Amino acid sequence: MSDEIVIIGGSLTGLTLALACAKYRIPVRVIERSAGHILGGDSLSIDLDLVATTTGYDPRAQPVLPVVPAYRELTTWPALYAWLRTRTIETHSIVLEESKNVTAISDMGEYVNISFSDGSERNAAAVIGADGYRSLVRQTITQEDPFATYSGYLVWRGLVEERELERSVAWSSNGGLWIEFVEGYRLVAATLPGRDGSLKAGERQITFAWFDTHQGTLLHQSGCLTEEGHVIGSLVRGKIDSTVRAELADIAKDIWPPLWREAVVKGVLSHAVLSGAPIAEYNPPRLAKGALAIVGDAAHVVSPMTGRGYLTGVEDAAMLAQMLSQRASDEPISTVFKRFEIARLPYIRGLVTHSMRISDEFVRYAKYHR
């Protein structure tokens, strides 16, 4: 019987958890359906001390993770993913298996059976789902309520190269986030390190997140939303119709401040830059069942307005890895997972409830200011 722990999902939280386990000399296998992400979310808050403590690697040491040293440390999704993946590949106790698509997970009592799209199977002592807001592992754990629910708004995202703009953005690299509310929309923008880590004006990347409550019809037509209001997809780069992008550009020219206007317009007009994420929230009834557990967005989905998405996943990873390291040799992993759920679930449910309140307030604001 296999004694292997398998992490489903090799994105940010999955790789963070793998490194956290490796710090305690717990061998794990990470299974990821993609072959090394190139693009993902565009910007996120990060706590360098927390990441260093959790993974055993300091992001300020070589290879350095480029961040904006503002009141809230910011980095880009691609930079953080590349940093985590590099560390994972270098860590001998982690097996990273990419281009492997999981289609089914079955808790067999004494072990977990994993089925793949190529017809193969694998048995594991335990499975931890870090497979995002549409988590297959979550669907196995909470079959009665497995789907994240649409929060009433979409976020248009983009990451624009500053060198492609006619003029540099007059916003300090340590200025943090710019937040603007206009006519029922919300804009969050910032200057971030360039692809080479540079913080010099003209060499940085400009990120924007445009919160929009007007795209329900588009999301239904594109298959991102079910009739029940469950989020099952997103508007990916390269797939957003040019008419939609042109309409957004016209709105951006009218409402967004000159400081960010050129970057936002350029971003929404580019099929290779613009993506649209319908914001979903999920308040979990549980985090574990038998030899299955979930962490990160697989366990709890919150609005980006909380600024707690990835950071909460890091906290999940830190706690679960430590509990696994303290497991007695004859103790079932299911017992550890249950302790993790008891310790972590109250905080998670409180955070998601807070997120839902924030979302409700924004939707009401947008409706009032239309």
From TrEMBL:
One of its GO terms (molecular function) is monooxygenase activity. The keyword Nucleotidyltransferase does not apply. The keyword Oxidoreductase applies. InterPro entries: DhpH_subs-bd, FAD-bd, FAD-dep_Monooxygenase_BioMet, FAD/NAD-bd_sf. Residues 278-353 form the FAD-binding domain. It comes from the Bacteria. Residues 150-264 form the 2,6-dihydroxypyridine 3-monooxygenase substrate binding domain. Keywords: Monooxygenase, Oxidoreductase, Ubiquinone. Pfam families: FAD_binding-like, FAD_binding_3. PANTHER family: MONOOXYGENASE, PUTATIVE (AFU_ORTHOLOGUE AFUA_6G14510)-RELATED. This is Ubiquinone biosynthesis hydroxylase, UbiH/UbiF/VisC/COQ6 family. It comes from Serratia ficaria.
